[in-house]
Design goal:
By secondary structure, the protein is an alpha+beta fold. The chain has 3 helices and 2 strands. The chain starts with about 20 loop residues before the first helix and ends in a 5-residue tail after the last strand.
Length: about 130
């Protein structure tokens, strides 16, 4: 199958934390509030994307992918972005993804399917690692 790089499916940008040790980010990270503007929340790191910025770009890519006329697609992405891939797939409105999280281990496979009769969208499996042995 031809490979198509979609930069919009990249992991959330952590700005100046990129390439630094996790402990560097942990000392500066400001977690989102339990309520309020979770999508526009800045996490305390200069240049980092907000949750909303990441979600918007992933939703935009998913909209384009789902308009392609093909029977199957394989999407490879990262953990934080995966939440928005799944949310876009099940047509969860962008405005409601401020607190959602679909977690999956690295290297895992998530299977999404739309049935041919009702056109319902399913999350068949999330984060399956059986292929890793």
């Amino acid at each position: 199958m031809p490979l198509l790089l979609e930069r919009g499916l990249r992991e959330k940008s952590y700005g100046e934390a990129e390439g630094r040790p996790q402990e560097w980010l942990d000392r500066r990270f400001v977690p989102p509030p339990a309520a309020g503007d979770r999508m526009g929340h800045h996490e305390g790191v200069a240049g980092a994307e907000t949750r909303g910025e990441c979600a918007r770009r992933v939703y935009d890519v998913m909209d384009a992918l789902l308009r392609r006329p093909c029977a199957h697609q394989i999407v490879v992405t990262h953990g934080f972005a995966l939440t928005f891939v799944v949310a876009a797939w099940i047509k969860m409105p962008y405005e409601t993804v401020g607190s959602v999280s679909f977690r999956a281990p690295s290297g895992s496979i998530t299977v999404l399917r739309e049935d041919d009769f009702f056109h319902n969208r399913q999350v068949v499996s999330l984060g399956d690692t059986r292929h890793l042995g």
